[in-house]
Write a structure and sequence with these properties.
Blueprint (H helix, E strand, L loop, with lengths): L1 H15 L14 H4 L2 E3 L5 E3 H7 L4 E7 L4 H15 L4 E7 L4 H10 L6 E4 L7 H5 L7 E5 L5 E6 L5 H11 L1
Parallel strand pairs: 3-4, 4-5
Antiparallel strand pairs: 1-2, 3-6, 6-7
Length: about 170
């Protein structure tokens, strides 16, 4: 009986921490989310709005990841394949590393230096991540050419809705 109770408790605990799709799938960003600051590789501050402005007129895929995240590392080859198969799409990688040193090491370790990388120096809990209901990584979003959210929630680069969204936006 104790064994059964233990197994039940582990199952309940695991389900409570499993990634759940947000109830509301947002199509735009709040003002607070847009002014959220990140750091680039050189340590310069940049806001979400500035990142979106740099990619305005293009389709943008945002990849939330960290080098300590096993699921993120498993997804990296498929994320690279998605990027390779979509040369007319911009990709931005938002890191949730715990430190700047961890951010820098992960970029080197996982050959990310040639990509568009930013780090949430403020940590996981911030206005942007709270607004988009970031509860797990990896997570992927597709942003359209007008900086609106076209695909709000995907947990794998293999999610067919990512490519379907990109294809629809390219028409």
């Amino acid at each position: 009986m104790k064994k059964l109770t233990f197994i039940f408790m582990i199952g309940v605990f695991g389900l409570s921490y499993a990634q759940q799709q947000p109830k509301v799938l947002k199509t735009s960003f709040s003002k607070e989310a847009l002014i959220q600051k990140l750091e680039d590789e050189e340590g310069k501050n940049i806001t979400i709005q500035q990142i979106l402005d740099e990619h305005k007129g293009k389709i943008l895929v945002i990849d939330f990841w960290a080098g300590w995240c096993r699921d993120c590392l498993k997804a990296l080859p498929k994320a690279e394949e998605l990027e390779k198969n979509n040369p007319n799409v911009d990709f931005v990688f938002l890191s949730l590393e715990r430190s700047k040193e961890g951010f820098d090491k992960s970029l080197d370790r996982f050959n990310m230096k040639d990509k568009d990388n930013y780090w949430f120096a403020s940590g996981w809990k911030n206005d942007f991540n709270n607004y988009i209901d970031l509860n797990w990584i990896p997570r992927y979003m597709v942003i359209d050419q007008k900086s609106s959210i076209a695909k709000y929630y995907a947990i794998s680069p293999e999610d067919p809705e990512i490519q379907e969204t990109i294809n629809r936006l390219l028409q």
